[in-house]
């Protein structure tokens, strides 16, 4: 399995690792099949993501996609951050092996989960903005 130099760089020297105390939004997602768990913390001021940190338990691709995704949304508005796709994360990392594409999906989902948490804390229903969280019984059929 070959990884791009960008993936290797973000795995070996991940950016934005850690936690944010009193984060405005926290999202955690996991994939039981592969064991990867991502947690993203957001600090938001005037609708801008002023800080973002992550903690990821998983393979090198999971760490690299978390690192890249947080780097891509830092300093962006929530609206811009919501446009981040797993495809954009993979392109920024110059590709992932097919068996590791799910890691980029987890990074996108963790970010959206953190934004949904932020909206909930603001008293706003995140569903119309973000869509289904995947946490209801309809989605969770595992």
Features:
globular, 19% strand, alpha+beta, Sufe protein. Chain: A, single chain, 142 residues, 42% helix, 3-stranded antiparallel beta sheet
Mean pLDDT: 91
CATH topology: Sufe protein. Chain: A
**Which architecture would the CATH scheme give at its second level?**
Alpha-Beta Complex
Largest sheet, strands/sense/barrel: 3 strands, antiparallel
Description of the structure:
This protein is an alpha+beta fold and 142 residues long. It has one domain: Alpha-Beta Complex (Sufe protein. Chain: A). It has helices at 5-12, 60-73, 78-82, 86-92, 101-121, 127-130, and strands at residues 25-31, 36-45, 48-57. Strands 1-2-3 form a three-stranded antiparallel β-sheet. Helix 1 (5-12) packs across helix 2, helix 2 packs across helix 5 and helix 4 (86-92) crosses helix 5 (101-121). The longest helix has 21 residues, at 101-121. It is globular, with a radius of gyration of 14 Å. The two termini are 28 Å apart.
Summarize the SSE layout with pairings:
Blueprint (H helix, E strand, L loop, with lengths): L4 H8 L12 E7 L4 E10 L2 E10 L2 H14 L4 H5 L3 H7 L8 H21 L5 H4 L12
Antiparallel strand pairs: 1-2, 2-3
Helix pairs in contact: 1-2, 2-5, 4-5
